[in-house]
Each structure stands twice: as structure tokens, then as C-alpha cells.
Amino acid sequence: MAMRELRYFGDPVLKTVCDPVTRFDKGTKSLVTDLLDTVRPDGRAGLAAPQIGVGLRVFSYDVEGQFGYVINPEIVELSAATHEIGEGCLSVPELWFPTVRAEHAVVRGVDLRNEPVVVEGKDVLAQCLQHETDHLDGLLYLDRLTKDRKRQAMGQMREKAWFRRA
């Protein structure tokens, strides 16, 4: 098992748009394995490659019994229906804020054999798919908060030990 160290708010890799995966080799397989291993501990729903310092378009997920990964994901469908759902992030630990997300999402990408993969989810899985794809586009869930909630999050963040170390 290869648990990778997480990157936290303030690390430039988290605000950088990721490159697509173009080589499907041992390095890509190793990255996927590390993402799957690192998302497995309780309390984790998803993990994008930049959260472990890698600027490639790959994420893993472990939500309500659904476990997997997607390489080069693209959101291809979002429901018009949205809801406000509590959201947190491994790269912004200890903070949770209501975030508006589509209730249903569909992501299309590929697997390690460069074969098509489609992941469809509602509620928490839909939230995860949107959240992790955002990471690959250089966005954090904080970027989706209302102005007042973002200000509140920034204030709370400054009080956290991990923020002072970062």
C-alpha cells in the first residue's frame, strides 16, 4: 500500500490546471494505485492527483460502496437540479461549508488500458465527481463558496495548525 502525503491549501499544484495523461505505462499505473490506496482510509470520498503533488488529470473515488478511478475525466452531464450540500476537502482539512452542486453528474474518461469509462452518480457521488474534476481544473471547493462563506473559511483556515505549517 502506497499512502501518499497530501498537499494543502497554498501549494501551487492545487491551483494549476492539470495536463491530460498521454502515456499509459507503469508510471500511470503506479499513480492510479497510489490514488486508490490513499483514498481508502475512512472519511475520504475522493482524491485528485494534484492533491498528492501530481499535475495529471486522474482522480480516485470511494463513495457509498463505489470505488474506482478515472483518467482524463470530463463532466459530460450535470442535472439542472442543484442542492446545497456540506463539503470539505482533504487539502483544506477540518473545514466544512455548504456548497451548491448539481444533484446528478456524469463523468467520462478512460481506464489504464485507455478504454472508455463512464461514472454516473447522484447526491454524494455526484458531489465527489464535481469536486475532483474541479481539482484537475485548478479549483478548490472554496472557489465555489459564496463571498461571505469564503471569507469565513479563510478566517477559520488561518487558525488551523496545518495552515501555519503550510
UniProtKB/TrEMBL annotation:
Any one GO molecular-function label of the UniProt entry: peptide deformylase activity
Binding site for Fe cation: 89, 131, 135
Domain of life: Bacteria
Primary enzyme class: hydrolase
Catalysed reactions listed for this entry: N-terminal N-formyl-L-methionyl-[peptide] + H2O = N-terminal L-methionyl-[peptide] + formate
Cofactors demanded by this protein: Fe(2+)
Assigned keywords, A-Z: Hydrolase, Iron, Metal-binding, Protein biosynthesis
GO terms of biological process kind: translation
Cofactor note: Binds 1 Fe(2+) ion.
Active site: 132
Record-linked InterPro entries: Peptide_deformylase, Peptide_deformylase_sf
Claim: Hydrolase is one of the keywords in the record: yes
E.C. number(s) listed in UniProt: 3.5.1.88
NCBIfam families: pept_deformyl, PRK00150.1-3
Role description: Removes the formyl group from the N-terminal Met of newly synthesized proteins. Requires at least a dipeptide for an efficient rate of reaction. N-terminal L-methionine is a prerequisite for activity but the enzyme has broad specificity at other positions.
UniProt family annotation: Belongs to the polypeptide deformylase family.
Entries under PANTHER family matching the protein: PEPTIDE DEFORMYLASE, PEPTIDE DEFORMYLASE, MITOCHONDRIAL
HAMAP family tied to this protein: Pep_deformylase
Protein name, entry field: Peptide deformylase
Organism whose genome encodes this protein: Amycolatopsis taiwanensis
